[in-house]
């Protein structure tokens, strides 16, 4: 159903978009219709479409697409937010819009799609911008990196990894502009976000709230075509997941704020009280591995205020110990860290001036 790479002599056959949409949905991918011939979502209803800068829609009512009632009743408003795997809804959409292309919403589909651009252009002058944060070999020949494919190849080399084409095999889609989309499954329980260019030059990531065009979709500039025989998606390789995490693509759940089981009473006012509260919270919420250091640093900071006569040393030692216990730090270890931090801090008394005094 999805077209294989075409020889220049064969006539392209464009799969029926409705079948493409149902094929994708059967894989658990959430689809939404794209305006015929384009790669942008269809226009929603009058109430939901802001229009463009040049041509704003006067009927548009400003609202948050999340939870918009149009989506609940099956309208294709708000692009990716309307994406679904429901075959009935899909059949109805493409019956009404038979020429609409197929978008696949990355986040709800559990996909992370590496978007490798191949549109030439001037590579960044400094190698540092090619793959930000990656230590590159010194012997890269100038002019050897021409597009995103080369940037990716370099990253694969530095990481001593293998990549689709070899292993793991995964769905690869050629875009009309000659780019490549590598489709991966997000590892269980992980959430990712798109960040254009953060991984490297001409390397983008489709994840979270962004979408990719399904293979088999034709646009006015050409078709999105699956390469080779592989139509399944492999799990995001570990080395690439690490690089995407490093470059800020991973969304980590916010840890609930620790409710301090005590109120730091008689701990000064204004700036001093806020400093105490902040340090105690940092200690109480510290992760294992950084707890001791966090505690020592907090004791140092508060020590600088003790000597300045702003805080009572014994009382501060007590509440710091409470916070350290809360973080699960062994008592002896905690006491030692507090003592050394306070002593060091007291050698550097802080003079509070202005509003902080
Ligand atoms: Zn609507
Ligand atoms: Zn709406």
Plain-language structure description:
The structure is a single chain. The chain folds into two domains: 17-251, no CATH class; 270-356. The chain contains ten helices and 13 strands. The protein has helices spanning 17-26, 69-72, 87-96, 106-109, 148-158, 238-246, 270-285, 291-307, 313-326, 331-346, and strands at residues 30-34, 101-105, 111-116, 172-174, 180-185, 191-192, 203-206, 211-213, 218-219, 222-223, 225-226, 234-235, 250-251. The strands form four sheets. Strands 3, 4, 5, 7, 11 and 12 form a six-stranded mixed β-sheet that branches. The chain has a three-stranded antiparallel β-sheet with strand order 1-2-8. The chain has a two-stranded antiparallel ribbon with strand order 6-13. β9 and β10 (222-223) form a beta hairpin. The longest helix has 17 residues, at 291-307.
- H and E order: HEHHEHEHEEEEEEEEEHEHHHH
- What proportion of the residues is helical, as a percent range? 25-40%
Number of domains: 2
Structure class: alpha+beta
The biggest sheet amounts to: 6 strands, mixed
Write a brief caption for the model.
With 357 residues, this protein is an alpha+beta fold.
Task: Please describe the structure with a list of short key phrases separated by commas or semicolons.
357 residues, alpha+beta, 6-stranded mixed sheet, disordered N terminus, binds zinc ion
Write the layout of secondary structure elements.
Layout: H1 17-26, E1 30-34, H2 69-72, H3 87-96, E2 101-105, H4 106-109, E3 111-116, H5 148-158, E4 172-174, E5 180-185, E6 191-192, E7 203-206, E8 211-213, E9 218-219, E10 222-223, E11 225-226, E12 234-235, H6 238-246, E13 250-251, H7 270-285, H8 291-307, H9 313-326, H10 331-346
Parallel strand pairs: 5-12
Antiparallel strand pairs: 1-2, 2-8, 3-5, 3-7, 4-5, 4-11, 6-13, 9-10
Helix pairs in contact: 1-3, 7-8, 7-9, 8-9, 8-10, 9-10
Bound molecules: zinc ion (ZN) (2 copies).
One zinc ion binds next to loops.
């Amino acid at each position: 159903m999805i077209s294989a790479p075409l020889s220049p002599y064969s006539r392209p056959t464009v799969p029926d978009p409705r079948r493409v949409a149902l094929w994708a949905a059967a894989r658990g991918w959430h689809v939404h219709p794209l305006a015929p011939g384009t790669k942008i979502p269809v226009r929603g209803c009058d109430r939901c479409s802001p229009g463009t800068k040049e041509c704003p829609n006067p009927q548009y009512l400003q609202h948050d697409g999340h939870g918009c009632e149009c989506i609940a009743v099956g309208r294709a408003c708000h692009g990716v937010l309307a994406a679904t795997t429901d075959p009935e809804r899909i059949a109805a959409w493409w019956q009404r819009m038979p020429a609409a292309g197929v978008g696949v919403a990355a986040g709800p589909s559990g996909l992370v799609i590496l978007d490798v651009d191949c549109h030439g252009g001037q590579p960044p002058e400094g190698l540092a911008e090619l793959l930000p944060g990656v230590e590159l070999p010194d012997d890269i020949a100038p002019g050897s990196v021409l597009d995103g494919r080369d940037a990716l190849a370099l990253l694969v080399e530095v990481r001593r990894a293998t990549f689709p084409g070899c292993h793991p095999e995964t769905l690869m889609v050629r875009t009309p502009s000659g780019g490549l989309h590598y489709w991966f499954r997000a590892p269980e329980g992980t959430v990712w976000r798109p960040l254009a260019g953060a991984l490297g030059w001409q390397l983008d990531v489709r994840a979270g709230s962004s979408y990719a065009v399904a293979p088999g979709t034709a646009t006015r500039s050409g078709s999105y075509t699956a390469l080779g025989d592989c139509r399944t998606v492999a799990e995001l390789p570990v080395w690439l997941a690490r690089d995407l995490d490093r470059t800020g693509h991973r969304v980590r759940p916010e840890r609930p704020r620790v409710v301090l089981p005590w109120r730091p009473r008689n701990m000064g006012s204004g700036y001093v009280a806020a400093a105490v509260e902040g340090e105690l919270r940092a200690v109480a919420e510290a992760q294992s591995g950084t707890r001791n250091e966090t505690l020592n640093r907090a004791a140092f900071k508060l020590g600088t205020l003790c000597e300045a006569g702003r805080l009572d040393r014994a009382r501060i030692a007590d509440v710091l110990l409470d916070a350290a216990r809360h973080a699960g730090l062994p008592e002896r270890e905690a006491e030692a860290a507090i003592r050394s931090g306070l002593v060091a801090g007291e050698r550097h008394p802080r003079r509070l001036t202005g509003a902080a005094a």
